[in-house]
Amino acid sequence: MHYSPILTMTLGALLTGVLAAEVRNLRVSTWAYLVHSLFLAATIAVFGSVTNTPRLYWWVLSTVLSKVIFIPLVLRWYTIKYPATELRPILGFRVSLIVMSVVLLACFKLVHTYIDFVAPTEAATLEPARSSLAVAFTVFALGLYILVTRRDAIKNVIGICLLENGAHLSLVVLAPTMPETALLGITSSIVLSAWMLIYVTGGVYEVYGGPDTFKLSKLRG
């Protein structure tokens, strides 16, 4: 079986995820997330092909419908309705790029080195599973980083989606042939949660004049 495309796809997902995180233009960031989701769908499709697991193609279809079409369309609608420039984040661009690079490289190195602790199976210690798992956990860390350092609601939605996509990458790399894998992947979509957060963003913008998620706590009053 030829596994080389798998690592290419996962690395593509990571790089486009970084672009979605750091680009300040929310419309470009939305496009970057769309391409990132395409890489996720392609990764699942490759696993479906090389492991001869047709059920994974249903997961591919679910990913395309929810992450490549629906969420980007909703994000696009809000970036047209409201200003397309991201609300000033906690960290400046240069500082954020440095901190993010350190965090992601450290995450990749730790998971890659201590893969036996993360996934104590023989298959996980072999390539490309070892590096692909490290990339998947790094995508998950990227989503967390966005949630911690960004104030803009659209970027927070993208961060939540990256969290889920990192988990999906880990799932398909670890157990592509298990029947439960495709079922979990299809049913664990956070489309509704993402849409609700964007909907709340509209309310925050109308009340406070901006998409600052730090102001969400004021809505309790």
Give a structural overview.
The chain has one domain (4-220). 75% of the residues lie in helices and 0% in strands. It has helices spanning 4-22, 26-50, 56-81, 93-113, 115-118, 129-149, 153-174, 179-187, 191-208. Helix 1 runs parallel beside helix 6 and helix 2 packs antiparallel against helix 3. The radius of gyration is 18 Å and the shape is globular. The relative contact order is 0.15.
Summarize the SSE layout with pairings:
Blueprint (H helix, E strand, L loop, with lengths): L3 H19 L3 H25 L5 H26 L11 H21 L1 H4 L10 H21 L3 H22 L4 H9 L3 H18 L13
Strand content: under 5%
Overall morphology: globular
Global mean pLDDT: 82
The topology string of helices and strands comes to HHHHHHHHH
Distance between the termini: 59 Å
Number of strands: 0
Q: State the helicity in percent bands.
A: over 70%
* Low confidence ranges: none
User: Oligomeric form of this entry?
Assistant: single chain
Total domain modules = 1
Integer-rounded radius of gyration? 18 Å
Count of alpha/pi helices:
9
Largest sheet: none
Structural class: mainly alpha
Give a quick rundown of the structure:
The protein is mainly α and 221 residues long.
Which features characterize this protein?
mainly alpha
